[in-house]
Each structure stands twice: as C-alpha cells, then as structure tokens.
C-alpha cells in the first residue's frame, strides 16, 4: 500500500512539473518550444524527430457500439470531418481511440493516424506546434504553413484532436483556432476528428452530415459491464454511476474505500463549474442548473417560460448549459442534468426559494386547474403536463414542508390536489404523506388540512395510514369549522355511511338550489355509491344513471365514468353480467379519451378514488 501511495505522489509531482513547464513557455516562441520539448523527449527514447505515438486501444469498451458504427459509416466518405461531443468523462476519448484502432481505419490510413491530446495547449500557435511535433516537423515560431503543407502533400491522413475545448474555449483564442480548423478541412486528403466537452461545434468548418449526436450516459447494463471488467461484482446498481469515467474510477478505487466516500472526494476536489467564458456570459445559468438538481424529470421550454422566473434570459441560460454539456435534452426535448451534476449541485449549490417559488406556483396552478377541469376532456392537457413532472412535483412541494415556511399551508394544499391526480393516472399513494401528516398540527389552515386528509382517506385504505382513528377525529374537528357540505360528504362517504348519507343529501340540495350541475352529479355519485354499499342496488342504479345524464350535460367524463362504474357493479350484483360488461367497456373507452387509468375495484368500505 505504501508503494502505491509513493507512486501516486510521484505521479502528482511529475504532473505538476509538466504543468509548470507549459506555463513557462512564452507566447512568442511557444510553438518552437513545444516542438523542441516533445521532439527531444521522444528522441531520447529512440526516435529522431517525431512524437507521434498512438494511445493504446481501449481494452474495456461497452455501450458505445452504435456510436462507433455511426463514425465508421462517416468514413465511407472520402474525408469525413466529425466532432464527438458530450459531457466531461462520458467517454468521448475512449470512443475516438476505439475508432482510431478499428480494423477498417487501420487498413485505410495505416501509419498515417495522428492522435493529438490538446489538454495542455493554450493558444492556436501552441496547438500548431504540438501537431508539428507529432509530424516531426523542425521547430519554428509558427508552424502553420509547414503543418498544412506536410498534411496536404502526404498520404491520406486521419488527425484526431482530443480535448480541443481546452484551446477553443477561451474567447481570445477561439477565432484563430476555428480559422486553423477551416484551413485543415481544405486539405482534401485529411480526415479530421475532434473531441470536445459540450454540445457546440466550432464554426467555420463544414462538418460531415448527419452530425454525430452528443454522447448520452451509458445504459445501466453498459456501466455495470465497465465496472465489473475492472473490479469485482460486489456493488449494487444504485452505487454504480452511468458516467464512463465515474464507473472506471469507482471500480479502480473500490478496494480503497466505499463508493459514497469516493464520490464525496471526487465532488469536493473536482468542481464541475469549469466553463468560465461561456458560463460567465450568462451568470444566471448556475441558478438554473441548481434548480435542475431537484428536478429529475427536467423542464420543458413551456415550463421555463410560463413559470415566470425572475431571470429574464432563462432560455439563454438553457443554451449555455447545453453548450457546456452541464445539461442535455432528453428524447422529449426536456432540459435535464446528469445524475452526478445534480448530486453535486444539490449538495454544494442548492436552489434558493427565489428559484423554487415560481415553479411551485406554476405546479400549484396546474393542479388547481386540473381539479376544476377534472373529468372533462380538456383535462387531458393538464394530465400530460403534470405527468411529465410527476417526480418533480413532490420535490418542489417538499421545499415548503418545513416549520415556519411561508408556503406551508399552500404546500399542504398542493399535496392534497396531488393525491387524486396520482390515483387517476394509476401511480397510487404520493411519497409526501408522512411528512405532511407530521406538519398538520402546525398549520392554521383548516381547509388545507381537511382537504388533505379527506383525499388521503378517499384514495387509499385507512389501515395503510398512520394512526387513522386519531386522524379521523381530528379531521372531523377541522370540518366543523368549515361550511363545506361537499368536503364533509366526501369524507364521510368513506368512513360513516349514515352520516355520509346526511351530508351528501345536504350537498345535493345545496347544488340544486344554486343550479350547479357538476356538484349535483358529484353528490348523486356519492349517494349511488352509499346505496350500493348498503345493498340497495336498484336505488344505486337509478342514482348512477342520473349521474351519467347530468355528467353528459356538463361534459364531465370523469363523473360519467363514476356513474358507469357504480351502475356496472350494481348490474354485477343483480346478475346482469351482459350489461355489466357493456358498461365497463364504455367506461374504459371514456377513460382512454383523457389518458386515465381504469380504476381497480376498491374494498367494500372504501370509495373509489374517482369519487374523491
């Protein structure tokens, strides 16, 4: 172990010496210095004037077969020009090296394959000098013309510039680098491949089409293969990340500590905020990235615009994150951050209430609009948007679920609206239940608290809720302070049939007096359900048919489904199975119109979630 530590320390010292040497190179004769330094170094190892040594072929290579096939397809053209893009450590260099050593490429270019690592150069002159050193060109102040002449007069050549973003990234050198790349692509016999962190290709180059797509994270299976090929199979998939470098690094170091400890060291010693020129031009990009850290589902452009963030240039921030590969677009064009970046930002740069607040309000308004239009075909739009954020919403709500938080009551109310939505799309109980229940005694908003518990009992079995008897009693006390027969009836419908019958009849009378057809349908749907529970199937069927009639008038598909559902189970109880099957099929067809899930028949003492 001590020998390993000594080797690691010596490697770090040697690395620092190289960096110091590079830093000492003056801008006036940098190309000459680089050429002499590399040529002399290689000459001592048996070569005359070239440092062109190819990196080894990757021995462990999984999950990039389709990307490699795309690259090889481009080589079917005479001289392709390709850019391999993606986040740092995602496998760009490994992919380029795999292409470099592929049999087809070796046969086509033989010894005329150059792999130039650009991570130490700081200007166009230094880049040209490094390429010249690989070609064995005699050192000089500016080797541009010599390099271009050498490449144009020689045999067909493949030139790979790895980590080109190092020299292309700074604004002061970008123009010169792009002009040099343009000159390289004027050479008919030169195939050019670059790897760059980010999602933006250098301009002034006619890149071969179709462009190579930025690399996406490895699949779980590919990441596991990388890990197992290096280390042994003794870690869970949750611990193995989907980034190529993380999988390789973790596997190499797995014997020296736990993966969580390793991840902590990596995150604290290797900050990800290392794209100064493109990021600093849009300083609010960091705030957007911090928000993405708690949004596994990402955000769409519509959500970025409609959330009314205080950042005026929010779409510019999005573009900056995409250019630097700190974020990416998934198959649905939603802006997301990779897991390691989300973990880093959530731990060290978490989002502020100022960023979370507008998105919370946006989701709150969507849930409220869904509650109003619930049952109508127009609610399909809200279902689609809410479902796209199903994992995001609990994270945003959770931010306000703290003692003393100004949005505590609104967060409880938002969670209560989320319960029936989750039930309707077939996702079941929401993950915030226990946290909300623990905070109910500390909120003064009785309506928000009662709404949450009523919908909670209406959406799942009471024996799955902690201390149900005490919660029922407390809910009754909150309901006494509210003049809301509908909410009271909804609660009693799943708890106490005689009292539920009383409140549902009160709600029906009140709805009739105000001419509210939707509330009449709701009250009748509950009355129908109660009558079914008591075995009065004929009355229940009559009520259910009236529910369907009123629901059609108000264009409320959900209440029509509720009526069909109750009538169907009444027909089942009465032995009319043919009619039962017809009603169930009709209900299923209506549910599909709004992308709902067909409800599973509930226990006898529990009303279906569709009635809550």
From TrEMBL:
Gene3D superfamilies: P-loop containing nucleotide triphosphate hydrolases (3.40.50.300), Tetratricopeptide repeat domain (1.25.40.10). It holds the Pfam family nSTAND1. Residues 57-198 form the Novel STAND NTPase domain. Transmembrane segments: none annotated. This is Novel STAND NTPase 1 domain-containing protein. It comes from Mycena metata.
């Amino acid at each position: 172990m001590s020998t390993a530590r000594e080797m690691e320390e010596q490697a770090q010292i040697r690395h620092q010496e190289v960096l110091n040497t590079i830093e000492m190179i003056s801008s006036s004769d940098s190309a000459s210095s680089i050429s002499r330094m590399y040529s002399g170094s290689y000459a001592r190892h048996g070569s005359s004037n070239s440092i062109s040594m190819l990196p080894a072929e990757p021995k462990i290579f999984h999950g990039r077969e389709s990307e490699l096939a795309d690259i090889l397809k481009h080589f079917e053209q005479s001289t392709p020009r390709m850019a391999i893009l993606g986040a740092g450590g995602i496998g760009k260099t490994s992919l380029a090296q795999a292409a470099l050593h592929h049999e087809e490429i070796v046969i086509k270019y033989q010894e005329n394959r150059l792999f130039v690592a650009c991570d130490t150069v700081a200007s166009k002159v230094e880049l040209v000098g490094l390429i010249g050193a690989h070609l064995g060109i005699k050192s000089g102040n500016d080797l541009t013309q010599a390099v271009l002449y050498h490449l144009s007069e020689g045999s067909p050549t493949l030139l790979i510039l790895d980590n080109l973003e190092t020299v292309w990234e700074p604004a002061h050198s970008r123009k010169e680098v792009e002009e040099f790349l343009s000159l390289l692509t004027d050479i008919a016999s030169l195939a050019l491949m670059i790897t760059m962190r980010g999602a933006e290709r250098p301009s002034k180059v006619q890149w071969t089409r179709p462009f190579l797509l930025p690399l996406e994270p490895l699949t779980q299976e590919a990441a596991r293969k990388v890990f197992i090929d290096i280390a042994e199979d003794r870690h869970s998939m949750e611990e193995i990340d989907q980034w190529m470098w993380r999988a390789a690094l973790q596997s190499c170091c797995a014997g020296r500590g736990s993966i969580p400890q390793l991840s902590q060291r990596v995150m604290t010693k290797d900050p990800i905020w290392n794209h100064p020129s493109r990021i600093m031009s849009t300083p609010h990009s960091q705030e957007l990235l911090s928000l993405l850290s708690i949004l596994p589902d990402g955000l769409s452009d519509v959500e970025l615009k409609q959330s009314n963030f205080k950042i005026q240039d929010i779409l510019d921030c999005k573009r900056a994150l995409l250019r630097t590969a700190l974020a990416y677009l998934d198959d649905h064009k939603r802006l997301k951050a990779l897991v390691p970046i989300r973990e880093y930002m959530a731990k060290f740069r978490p989002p502020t209430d100022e960023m979370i607040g507008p998105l919370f309000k946006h989701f709150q308004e969507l849930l409220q609009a869904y509650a109003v239009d619930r049952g109508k075909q127009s609610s399909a739009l809200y279902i689609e948007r809410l479902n796209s954020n199903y994992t995001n919403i609990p994270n945003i709500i959770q931010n306000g679920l703290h003692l003393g938080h100004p949005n505590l009551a609104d967060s409880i109310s938002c969670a209560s609206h989320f319960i029936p939505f989750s039930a309707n799309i077939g996702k079941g109980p929401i993950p915030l239940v226990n946290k909300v229940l623990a905070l109910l005694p500390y909120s003064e908003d009785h309506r928000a608290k009662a709404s949450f518990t009523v919908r909670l009992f209406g959406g799942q079995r009471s024996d799955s809720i902690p201390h149900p008897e005490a919660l029922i009693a407390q809910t009754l006390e909150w309901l006494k302070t509210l003049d809301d027969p509908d909410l009271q009836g909804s609660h009693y419908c799943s708890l106490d049939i005689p009292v539920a019958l009383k409140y549902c009849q009160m709600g029906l009378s009140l709805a009739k007096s105000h001419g509210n057809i939707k509330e009449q349908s709701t009250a009748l749907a509950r009355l129908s359900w109660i009558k079914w529970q008591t075995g009065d199937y004929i009355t229940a069927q009559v009520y259910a048919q009236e529910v369907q009639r009123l629901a059609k008038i108000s264009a409320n598909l959900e209440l029509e489904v509720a009526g069909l559902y109750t009538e169907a189970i009444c027909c089942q109880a009465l032995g009319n199975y043919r009619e039962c099957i017809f009603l169930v099929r009709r209900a299923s067809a209506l549910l599909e119109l709004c992308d709902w899930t067909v409800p599973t028949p509930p226990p006898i003492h529990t009303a279906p979630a569709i009635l809550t």
